[in-house]
Amino acid sequence: MVNLLINNLSRRLLLLASAGLVLILQACDGAGGGGGSQQKFKSGDEVLCIDEAKSYCVDWVNGDDETGTGRSDSPVKTISQAVNLANANEGNAKIYVKPGLYNEALGEQFPIILDNSISIEGLGDASEEVILSGSGEHTSTTSITRQVALVVNGSNSISNIQIENSVEVGVLLDSTKEDMVLDGNSVVKNSTGILIEGTGSPIISNNVLSDNGVGLSMFGSDDPRVYSNDINTNSIGIRVGVSSEINLGIKNNGGSNKILGNSQCDLLSESSKDISALGNIWDINEFEFSIQDVCGSGANIATSGSGTVNYQFIPSNTFPLFTSSITIEISSPAFGEKITGNQPNLLWTPSKQPLVVAAILNHPVVLKAGRIANPDKIVWLWHSGLGTANEGDVNFSQGVSIIGGDINKTEPPKALDSGRSYYWYIMAWDTEGKAVTHSSHHNYFTVP
């Protein structure tokens, strides 16, 4: 009977473009005037920026903080001075920085604080980088004093900068808004790479966060959107505080982050809130690991709070598995339910058919040519031929566990693993066992 029944069973890149992003060929102008003569700021024959209102040029070689106005023909030497000029001109400015090392020895004053919608764009490339390296004392809006390289407040964009602070924090997002963007930066060799403490929803995309103690850390009621980043070789890749949220990818819009090779763990959630982390690349396939209780030994995901992390595929539940069949309504575990315990009872509206199967898988159901194509992913099974329960109300103990993915080898049911999602469905056949007449939606639930 099992053989008869089973033989019949048989997600890019959203690039966020916003007016707050600074493009490499946008204007670069000082406080001294508007459209003007379209002066060019060059590196050899390469045009790096053009003078326009409220833009400032920084050149560590040819710039002068005493006499420079920030125009392309009169650049300043340090980012700090460009910020001073921008603030004196009521902010809402763009700063363009020529490749080089910007540190205290050059005259930078740390931390560099960006208020008033001031944005920074590095003009380097893979061979010549803009490196901001240093730290200074800063007391945040939460009254905590830290050593920080760059502090961001409000609506700003930071792009194409390498930020280093071996003392403590590379970038502190202290008070941000939804249009604050960190895009295309390298945040390396910091105790904490990026620290978020505000209440906004900043966008963090296309950055490299590596060789830090913690790559990305957040506290408070932030809800950053984190997409397409390379977060690797840190001690902890991402740390989410007790009351924080983070969007690492949602259904139909996966995160596309590479969160790999972080020595303690890739993601540590201490949060009381559930976190969505769909569509990312981890050290191993997302269906082959479970969430751990402790951040250590290179774990992919660890949780110490009451919230969970949704990191596995969420199926569509719009139609039944077999679209031409009658829908079997599932009651429990409901779609996306976080169950209690590791041995769920299964409840559904009976189909009243003689041949019925209920199956739990550790991988989403794959359908090909009208058949279940991955029965080797079934970990628990019940069918009406077992005679252990009435259809529609099946206790976990009344089914069987599958040994080694071979549905012909069964054993008494074993509890499901904690810290992951499972997928399940119901199917029923006609009296001859040839055609599927009823099926449920593609359901899933999570075992905390």
Write out key terms for the chains shown.
448 residues, mainly beta, Immunoglobulin-like, 9-stranded mixed sheet, 2 helices, 41 strands, disordered N terminus
List the SSEs and their pairings.
Blueprint: H1 2-7, E1 40-43, E2 46-50, E3 55-58, H2 79-88, E4 94-97, E5 100-102, E6 112-114, E7 119-122, E8 130-133, E9 136-139, E10 145-154, E11 157-159, E12 162-164, E13 169-176, E14 181-183, E15 186-188, E16 192-196, E17 203-205, E18 208-210, E19 214-218, E20 225-227, E21 230-232, E22 236-240, E23 258-260, E24 265-269, E25 275-276, E26 299-303, E27 309-310, E28 326-328, E29 330-332, E30 337-338, E31 346-348, E32 355-361, E33 367-368, E34 371-372, E35 378-383, E36 393-394, E37 400-403, E38 406-411, E39 420-429, E40 436-440, E41 443-447
Parallel strand pairs: 3-4, 4-7, 5-8, 6-10, 7-11, 8-12, 10-13, 11-14, 12-15, 13-16, 14-17, 15-18, 16-19, 17-20, 18-21, 19-22, 21-23, 22-24, 24-26, 25-27, 28-40, 30-41
Antiparallel strand pairs: 1-2, 9-10, 29-31, 31-36, 32-35, 32-39, 33-34, 35-37, 37-38, 39-40, 39-41
Could you walk me through the main structural features you see in this protein, from its secondary elements to its overall organization?
It is a single chain. By secondary structure, the chain is mainly beta. Among the domains are: 134-310; 314-447, Sandwich (Immunoglobulin-like). The protein has 2 helices and 41 strands. The strands form 8 sheets. Strands 6, 9, 10, 13, 16, 19, 22, 24 and 26 form a 9-stranded mixed β-sheet that branches. Strands 28, 30, 32, 35, 37, 38, 39, 40 and 41 form a 9-stranded mixed β-sheet that branches. Strands 3-4-7-11-14-17-20 form a 7-stranded parallel β-sheet, covered by helices on one side. The chain is elongated. 49% of the residues are buried.
